[in-house]
Design a protein that fits this description.
By secondary structure, this protein is of the alpha/beta class. The chain has 3 domains: 98 residues, no CATH class; 196 residues, Nucleotidyltransferase, domain 5 (2-Layer Sandwich), CATH 3.30.420; 95 residues, no CATH class. Helix content is 54%, strand content 8%. Strands 1, 2, 3, 4, 5 and 6 form a 6-stranded mixed β-sheet that branches.
């Protein structure tokens, strides 16, 4: 049976054993925000109800698990440990007796959808606006990359992953065809040989890669008659990886490159960072007001110019008014976006234009208002850095596209709640 709310009961042992225990002020203020029943009812839409079986973990505790996990950037086993030994975390999550095991926490959090997390964040923003912690007068947008939890992809390693996964699936389903080749030793030997070769040994490298492609095609041919969904899906990914590898050998650049067998939605991004040639993950568009992250979108392909109009619409929906100041970097510039901001009633528009500037545009971008908004825009880099360093948006710990959306949304909510608590203390 689904249980909505949890009751915090005094523990006599804790009272006598730890009489001087005091709750952190941040925890206490965040606890007051999460006491809002509307937040629990919003999350309850993702938690199915049933008349059979044992009672589920309360929905309110599940919401607190989500926040705590990102406040401390923990995996599931570490969550179980901290809920067993940390009095402040037990108090925050309303744990009265034994803490749930890590598998229970994982199962509960896996039910949460990324769109539900967005709706919860919108309600928190509504409460912040109601308490005048934010005015909704400013808008800035920026993008960043959240890395997937995958190894660095090479063509040979991806084919090896595909072959290994395909063989594992047919054996686990007990439908392996007679004479199925696994190539486990041959693939390891080929990968090790490639690692030992220098970049100048081009012919030797091409020969090894072609050998590995042949191994992948043999496994595809031996499993072509299996109609199980998991096998068909893996075969399609492996076929695409082999095709893109052959394209590279022909001296061409493949389009829509697959970089992971296990996370096929992940894409490569070149951001021009020093020491990082390419990042593998998803692009996150982050929208902020004066204090909080009000909205975000997750994309597998960059779409900065397309996001700006939606950011304006979302700001109007949250605050029932357009921002007075809007600031972005050059990636969001387009004539249509500039006109859209004017039509929305934005007074100070700080969208740097790409390319050549005429006299009128140079004059507009040299005003003090434009420069102040660009200084405000630069503050978004600090917020993104905070999200990555503290709240886990640098690299996801979970697997799957749905889990990626939940991970990103959970980190942003934890960041907003911490900002909420700090503002209440000032």
């Amino acid at each position: 049976m689904r249980i909505l709310f949890a009751v915090r009961q005094p523990n006599l042992f804790q009272q006598f054993a730890f009489p001087s225990f005091n709750v952190n002020e941040d925890y206490r203020l965040i606890d007051e925000v999460l006491e809002n029943h509307d937040l629990v009812m919003e999350l309850a839409k993702d938690i199915p109800d049933t008349d059979i079986g044992r009672n589920r973990t309360p929905v309110e505790q599940t919401l607190r698990f989500l926040v705590l996990r990102h406040q401390k950037n923990l995996d599931y086993r570490a969550m179980e440990e901290t809920l067993n030994v940390n009095l402040a975390d037990r108090w925050f999550c309303k744990i009265n007796n034994d803490a749930p095991c890590f598998k229970t926490i994982q199962n509960q959090l896996s039910l949460i959808d990324g769109e539900t997390v967005k709706r919860i964040n919108a309600r928190i923003m509504g409460e912040a606006y109601k308490q005048k912690l934010t005015r909704g007068n400013k808008l800035r947008v920026d993008s960043t990359i959240t890395k997937a939890n995958i190894h660095y992809p090479t063509d040979v390693s991806l084919i090896a992953d595909g072959v290994r996964t395909l063989v594992r699936d047919v054996k686990r389903l007990d439908i392996a065809p007679r004479g199925l080749r696994t190539f486990s030793r041959s693939l390891k030997h080929s990968i090790n040989r490639l690692r030992s070769l220098g970049k100048k040994a081009e012919m030797a490298r091409r020969k090894i890669i072609q050998t590995v492609i042949g191994m992948g095609k043999v496994v595809l041919r031996q499993t072509k008659d299996i109609a199980k969904d998991t096998v068909v899906k893996t075969r399609a990914i492996l076929s695409k990886i082999i095709a893109q590898t052959e394209t590279v050998l022909q001296g061409e650049k493949p389009k829509d490159r697959v970089v992971s067998v296990f996370e096929p939605f992940v894409r490569p991004f070149r951001k021009g960072k020093a020491g990082v040639s390419c990042e593998f993950g998803v692009e996150v568009q982050v929208q902020e007001d004066e204090k909080f992250i009000t909205n975000w979108e997750i994309n597998s392909k960059p779409s900065d110019t397309e996001f700006f109009p939606r950011a304006l619409d979302k700001h109007r929906a949250l605050f029932d008014k357009s921002p007075k100041n809007a600031a972005t970097d050059r990636g969001y510039w387009s004539p249509e976006n500039y006109e859209r901001a004017i039509d929305a009633g934005v007074k100070n528009i700080s969208l740097p234009k790409k390319g050549y500037l005429n006299a009128e545009e140079r004059k507009r971008q040299s005003t003090s208002a434009f420069k102040r908004n660009q200084c405000y825009r630069a503050g978004g880099e600090a917020k993104i850095s905070l999200l990555k360093r503290v709240f886990g948006l640098g690299r996801t710990r979970d697997k799957g596209e749905r889990s990626m959306a939940r991970w990103i949304g959970g980190g942003i909510i934890a960041c907003n709640l911490m900002t909420f608590a700090r503002l209440l203390q000032t």
